Amino acid sequence: MTSSLDQKISRRGFFKLTGAATAAAALGGSDSALKPGAAQAGTRLKPGFESKYTVCDMCFNKCSAIARVVDGKVQKLDPNPKFLKSRGMLCAKGNAGVRQQYDPDRLKYPLLRVGARGEGKWKRLGWDEALDLAAEKMKAIGEKYTRCGFMFMAGADMQSTFIHRFAKAYGSYNTLSHESQCLIAGTRAFLDTFGEVPIPDMLYAKYCLMMGANRFEALVTPDSIDMMTAMKQGMKLVVMDPRYTKTAAKAHEYYPIKPHSDMAVMLAIAHVLIKEGLYDREFVAEKTYGLEQLAKHVEPYTPEWAATESEVPAEVIVKIARELGAAKPAAMIYPGRRSSNYRDSTQVRRAFAIVNALLGNWDRPGGLTAARMVGLGGGVPLEEPFYENNPADRVDAGRATLMFPEEGSFKLARDAVLEANPYPVKGFFCYHSNPMQTVANRAKTARMFDQMEFVMVMDVAMSDTAWMADLVLPSQYYLERLDPCSAQQGSSACACVVMRDPVVKPMFEAKPVFWVMRQLANRLELGEHFNFSVEEFRNAQLKDLPGALEALQKDGVYYNPSKLYGVYEGRIYKTKSQKIELFNQRYADMGLDPMPVYRKPAQPEADQFRLVVGRNAVVTQSSSTSNSLLMEFQPTNHLWINPAAAKGLGIEDGDWVKVASPAGKQWIQAKVTDMTRPDTVYMETGFGVLSPQLAAHGRGACIAQVLVDDFDQISGNMAMHETFVTVSKEAA
Amino acid sequence: MLKRSAAMVLALIIVFSGLGMALALEADGNSRKGKYLFRKSCRGCHAEGQQAKDMSPVDMTQAQWKQLFSDYKKLPCYDKWGNVPEKDVKDIYSYLYGHAKDSPSPAKCK
Questions:
Q1: Which terminus of chain B is more exposed, N or C, with fewer CB under 10 A?
Q2: With 80 as the cut, is the pLDDT of residue A21 above it?
Q3: Which chain B residue lies closest to A388 (C-alpha atoms)?
Q4: What are the CA-CA distances from residue B80 to residues A228, A643, B22, B41, B42 (Å)?
Q5: Chain B contact for A47, CB < 8 A?
Q6: Is residue A257 one of the residues assigned to a domain?
Q7: CATH: 1.20.120, 1.10.760, 1.10.8, 1.20.140. Which one for B6-98?
Q8: Boundaries of domain holding A507
């Protein structure tokens, strides 16, 4: 490769940036948290304001925040300096949350479709009318197609637990979440190696190799903040990514790895660690299973071989392996979060997990830590009924080898629904999720909705998914809601609980989804499963945590000072061998590769590019691209294309181009930049909006329209980066 | 959080492991029905505040559940089971085995 990306990038003076976050974290004291100015952004508040704790809902991280309320209206949001998981930080998206509360495009009352699906013709309904209709449809579909004929989908929301509860009470096994778009391959891989999914102890790491993650832009707390602090304390960060992300820009070293070759590099690192005896011998001997098999397995995976696959030089791979070996056990391959990349993403992440195991970093400072005890209960128990006439399993069961039965796979469920195999699914309820924007192959998602007899969507705005619905219900915004408690894991930062009380009165006719589920349950003779209030549910969650409610009310967060390191001392690992599995016995029994095998991946043809997708620190997919404040930072998306490739196609910066794949096509302006490889183009998520009731309508292109819907064969995770596109200079 | 009653159940395994294999159950029953039947048939006693230890699939490994059910008629509580049909026992076993602590899909809650 000849791009300027070949040069090793030196780190920049970014440590200055850590100042605000650490200063905020340092503040506190017993009664300072609710006082403005502790971590304020400079906005002047009117006298007489009130301060109320809340929990941000602008992404999945759920950061504790403080709402400053004047005359019953939220004037601004501040971080909660006592909230250690975010290190007292509230990000740009979090600060912008107040705009959504008062967004004129919010859904205001229930709407019934009266035109063709997606045509945008609606009739206003009263709540009773809307709920009667929904209950009638749910009853009819359940009777005609069995209760599994109705599918439920809920996003990462503090009330989503009530959708899952309702689905169980109603009797449908077909529940979906965002997870099969996002992270289940990584979850599968680490669960099948360590017996649980680790939380990285970034703050105390001395060395971090990050691949398949962009933690300075795709924020995860406390990792994003801790990574800066750890670097200040001397941690070395090495980033490999086909794209020059902001994380790459801040790294000590950056290598523009060829896409889909992470496993090759990882196997070569394992090769060097074993061959040079750099792995943690005592740890591996005592706590892992399969070193002998692994040593033999990685023998042919030399750094020289990996260099030809990845375009990361062999001497770099050797150097990184040696540096990891020297820094162990406070050295890690960052586990990452989104793993919806390739057909073998579980095995790619297994390779990450295996190298971590060789470094002996499990359950130790600066390594990968186990889930800490939080102690939050499951709330009011559900007496889940059983319906004899239901089919045996989920509609997508058996379509991936080791799918999680509670999560399933959106891609595979959609395929099953379109094939009506093994049974028809004719009803869909979606809450706080937007598959029309986020799921690869939007045309297929639209076809799935077309074949449904009833689609109901509940959200705060007319999302692209709501735009396809028969019935649209207005949801309360998070600042209006009383929500259950939520447990959070933050490694050295905390094991904690947060909860959300209403900060302001609900606007328009918006309701919480708990109320909707309860109303529907009553109409469907399932009321016994929802005969409690949210407060009662919360009390049941907190029953084993004396003092937690008081702490939550006083500080906005409850901490459980539970054990962080050495959690596994005297305990077995939850794997078949009861050890950390370098060699996975269950995989071997099932005919899967018991250790990751590198198979030369398909590559784009000469006139094609691999499409990769991602996001930055000011948007969370489609849920925030219409936020007027964030739009000032990110008004649209572009197609990143390398100058050498652009030149060959006659494309100049700012030109409109057509991006086409077997799934579909979109028109978008090109950003000609050497921040992506010549074989790779990049688009950000959340644009190309269909719904004209969103401010982002008419801006940029939609990833879901062009991404091909392949899937990870083991977990059923979507495999978005298997998409090859052509790019041509062509006006829309 | 889940209570760990593994020690108690392990003791049961030790007691009964010498009694031979009366029944070789396969974990190919209806696990979803098994979850329901487990609650109906077992949780009456095996629950917090009840006469027997709280119990969940993640209290044991698949091997331990297999061992326990290999001779379930000799479990101390078997006389309290009533007339649970063998098919139901198989469904319950499929649920417990399928969501054991070392299974591919450990149970998340009781």
A1: N
A2: no
A3: B33
A4: 60, 76, 19, 10, 10
A5: no
A6: yes
A7: 1.10.760
A8: 126-182+382-483+502-526
